[in-house]
Design a protein that fits this description.
10 strands; alpha/beta; globular
């Protein structure tokens, strides 16, 4: 990125206009006096021509994105200002925050059909837009790149049992694994998001505006602004091995795209396969890295199939309390009864971080989901092997989930080929264990 700094020395960068934060504008319009957003040319390979994403409160007239940084956490920023704990004029010191390993640039960065939900230059703000920062613009990174040690009891158990062998580089004798990782906030290019969902940009804007109770009026009043930072969770990329090998399709790559499940991933709830599948993927990623390849886990904040944890728990209650008890046969129907839809993860945006990393070929895809598989291969990434969760890792109460998913189209692999309609009907989950009085009250 050395050339970016040289380009930033030119004098074509505008002077920032600093907004006085003691004045509140309820909304803005494209033809209002003084409105002059910094142009964005999404998909251009030169970050200066593409333009920086400006979504901070200091430059309201030059802001070129709707929303705010930090996703749903932006509300806490407001609370910090209200409590007098944060100066709203504060500009972060980013001097020591640059990535600790290199990502890109890749050819995929220039194709909106491959990247439209994250900013591919979001991790190199201090290099790519140094000239803007020097002039006083408040431009925030939307991607942070660092390294860490991961310590999981399942990995320690795998070392103890001999399934994993420490090498001192990828896996330490303590059972800790060494990873490179990146935290990513969503940055949406609305025209391409609309195309992927098969609707017009106008319909997309109106639908989001309506279903957020008018939270973002600029979706309606500012059709000239094409960038949106939605108030949703982002994602984290974990990499075992050398990230520079990722674009080389001759080098083995193992990957899992995992959607958040707090109950299982963190607390070990046994009603689903989320944590055991995640830890199995991590084990396979470590093995791949030790063979000279690379392992990737992409962890999306899509709790409860993006329906949220409250909705998920309401579905759990419905499943357990329905006539006949928790059953694989009614697994998906229970979600529809509560939420009106089975799933709102919509995998159309899911492959973007793979393209951000330069992935062209996945040799081992640790997932049984056809929706994820189809979404990835439709964007030009080849998947060689699909790896199902080993049967011995599926908790007893998660048999309902795995049976229902395989019967309704998840890739069965060799382990789950015997699941038929008879298996679907007879697979039952654990009861809550109510006493008789509680059961009677529920029925009544």
């Amino acid at each position: 990125y050395r050339n970016y700094k040289k380009k930033n020395e030119n004098d074509e960068i505008p002077v920032p206009e600093i907004t006085q934060l003691d004045y509140v504008s309820l909304t803005s319009h494209a033809d209002a006096f003084g409105v002059d957003p910094i142009p964005i040319s999404w998909g251009h390979p030169d970050p200066l021509v593409r333009g920086p994403v400006i979504c901070t409160v200091r430059h309201s007239s030059q802001r070129n994105a709707i929303g705010a940084h930090s996703g749903s956490y932006c509300i806490y920023t407001g609370l910090a200002v209200a409590a007098g704990k944060l100066n709203p004029d504060y500009v972060p010191n980013l001097k020591l925050t640059s990535p600790v390993f290199n990502i890109g640039p890749h050819k995929s960065w220039t194709d909106p059909k491959k990247i439209a939900s994250i900013d591919p230059f979001g991790h190199i703000v201090t290099e790519a837009y140094a000239g803007y920062l020097d002039k006083g613009f408040d431009i925030r990174p939307t991607i942070a790149v660092t390294k860490a040690h991961i310590d999981l009891p399942e990995t320690r158990e795998a070392v103890k049992s001999g399934r994993l062998v420490p090498d001192g580089k990828i896996l330490l004798p303590t059972g800790q694994s060494i990873v490179s990782k990146a935290a990513v906030e969503p940055v949406w290019y609305l025209p391409e998001i609309a195309r992927r969902f098969g609707c017009t940009e106008t319909v997309l804007r109106q639908s989001i505006f309506r279903m957020t109770n008018g939270m973002y009026p600029e979706l309606i009043t500012r059709p000239d602004i094409k960038i949106f930072l939605p108030p949703i969770g982002g994602l984290t990329i974990y990499i075992w091995g050398d990230p520079d090998t990722i674009p080389d399709d001759d080098i083995e790559l193992t990957c899992r795209v995992h959607d958040e499940c707090n109950g299982s991933d963190v607390f070990g709830s046994d009603i689903c396969t989320c944590r055991p599948y995640l830890t199995h993927a991590i084990e396979e990623c470590i093995k791949t890295a030790q063979r000279g390849g690379c392992g990737i886990v992409i962890y999306y904040r899509k709790e409860g199939r993006s329906l949220g944890e409250v909705t998920k728990y309401l579905v759990y209650n419905t499943r357990k309390r329905q006539e006949g008890g928790d059953s694989a046969e009614n697994y998906f129907a229970c979600t529809e009864k509560v939420a009106g839809v089975q799933d709102t993860r919509f995998q159309a945006l899911m492959p973007d971080p793979l393209h951000f990393l330069g992935v062209k070929k996945i040799h081992n895809f640790i997932s049984m989901s056809d929706m994820k598989y189809n979404a990835i291969v439709s964007t030009g990434i080849e998947i060689v092997n699909r790896v199902e969760i080993p049967k011995e890792l599926v908790p007893d109460d998660a048999q309902v989930e795995i049976t229902a998913k395989v019967f309704h189209g998840y890739n069965a692999g060799e382990a789950y080929k015997g699941i038929d309609e008879n298996e679907l009907k007879k697979t039952k989950g654990r009861e809550y264990g109510y006493d008789q009085n509680t059961k009677k009250n529920l029925v009544e």
